[in-house]
Amino acid sequence: MKKRPIDYRLIFGLIVAHFLLYFSFQDNSIFWYIFSASLLVLITYAMLQEEVDDDASFFKYISLGVVFGLLQYIIFWLGYHSFGILHLPFANSISRLYRWFAPSMFWQYLALVLVAAPGEELFWRGFVQKRLITYLGPLKSILVASLLYASVQIYSGTFILVFAAFISGLIWGVIYFWKKSMPLVIVAHLVFDIMIFIILPLK
User: Fold this and answer.
1) DSSP letters of 43-82?
2) 183 and 54 Cβ atoms separated by less than 8 Å
3) Does a structural domain hold residue 1?
4) Cβ neighbours of residue 100 under 8 Å, at least 6 residues apart?
5) What does the alpha-carbon distance between residue 121 and residue 108 come to, in Å, rounded to a whole number?
6) Is residue 80 in some structural domain?
7) CA gap 114, 107 in Å, rounded
8) From the Swiss-Prot or TrEMBL record, what is one GO molecular function term (predicted)?
């Protein structure tokens, strides 16, 4: 069996991501400052390593991105209300997450749209998942990339954010592999974030 080479660029990128996200979650009062700066670092690193896939037309990635983003919000909305019906304790955790980490100032909403969503997709799907697929194949790479994406949310101290990141990572990972379009998956992520943080928050 041929021995697979160690992907040092991927390993280094993951170490940097954990380091940056660890410090991002340490102080709620400055979360958006550190988080935004961290994602700018990860964007730069990802774009130096991989080309950006864009196999969809402008109309296609906008329209499909909006549809996928809305469908994902509906999935999360149904899940949130299921917690209440089943009397699960996660509703309080979600309210606490909004209180700690949701944007509240104008510049933070800009950072959400211009930095957070594009940055997470460029790094976790456009870099991590894309490199993993050469070693693991499509299904395993989507699963492992989603687990890695969820793993950096551990520093928030809340299981519900880790779980939500894992589910989101699976959805965005499938879309990215299926459509081979980074703009499309960024739009889907943006629409989801706008719905869940601005238009119809789950709280």
Assistant:
1) HHHHHHHSPPPB-S-HHHHHHHHHHHHHHHHHHHHHHHHH
2) yes
3) no
4) 28, 31, 156
5) 18
6) yes
7) 10
8) metallopeptidase activity
**Quick check: 85 pLDDT over 80?**
no
Q: Is residue 108 part of a domain?
A: yes
User: Can you read off the two tokens belonging to residue 197?
Assistant: 């943080």
Number of structural domains (the chain) is 1
Average pLDDT over residues 81-106: 79
Name 112's bridge partners.
Answer: none
Residue ranges making up the domain that contains 67: 8-199
15: part of which helix (H) or strand (E)? helix 8-24
**Is there a contact between 43 and 122 (Cβ–Cβ < 8 Å)?**
yes
Q: Is the pTM of this model over 0.90?
A: yes
Residue with tokens 């991002």: 24
**pLDDT tens per residue across span 54-83:** 887 888 889 999 999 999 999 999 988 887
